[in-house]
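agent> fetching stored inputs for the zinc ion docking request
agent> found them:
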Amino acid sequence: MICARCDKAIRPGEKYDTTVVHGNSVGQPTVIRHRDCPSRRRRARR
Ligand SMILES: [Zn+2]
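agent> prediction call returned; pasting tokens
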């Protein structure tokens, strides 16, 4: 599963939200996003 916001993989155990998109893309009706994206946290890590 890939987070639609930060475009990173959501690991098992991490909390995420699923949003059903009512659009014309039939292939991806569901958008998955972290509840707390890692990239949004300020961490000095490389
Ligand atoms: Zn994310």
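agent> quick read of the result: The chain has one domain: 1-46.
agent> awaiting further instructions
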